[in-house]
Design brief:
By secondary structure, this protein is mostly helical. Helix content is about 60%, strand content about 5%.
Length: about 110
């Protein structure tokens, strides 16, 4: 049950969200660093494709630049955008963690008989 398609999908999504949270925290920490280039994490479309192909574990998590314009000090971190990303990511993590916990609860019920 722990390696079924839905459990693996949840685990991969949680990994992507954890990486997004780390990248967003790094962006926020470097708000005032001259010439710092903000990064973003992408995994949703890769995960959707992998699920469609029946192998969510094949999804990739990628990190790249945001492409936002830099300010006067060469830094392109947008605090407003980063706070929205961090909040949204936290809410998504809570939802997916709850779903995975529910799956573990089902397994526990089956094992207890």
């Amino acid at each position: 049950m722990l390696d079924d398609i839905s459990s693996v999908t949840l685990q991969v999504a949680l990994s992507g969200l954890a990486q997004r949270q780390q990248v967003s925290a790094n962006n926020i920490a470097n708000t005032e660093t001259p010439n710092f280039t903000a990064s973003k994490v992408s995994f949703e479309s890769s995960l959707a494709d992998a699920v469609r192909n029946g192998d969510p574990a094949a999804a990739s998590i990628s990190t790249g630049g945001t492409g936002d314009a830099a300010g006067a000090n060469g830094n392109n971190v947008s605090l407003d955008s980063e706070f929205v990303t961090a909040t949204k990511t936290t809410l998504q993590e809570q939802l997916l963690t709850s779903a995975l916990t529910s799956k573990y609860g089902e397994l526990s019920t089956v094992l207890k008989g």
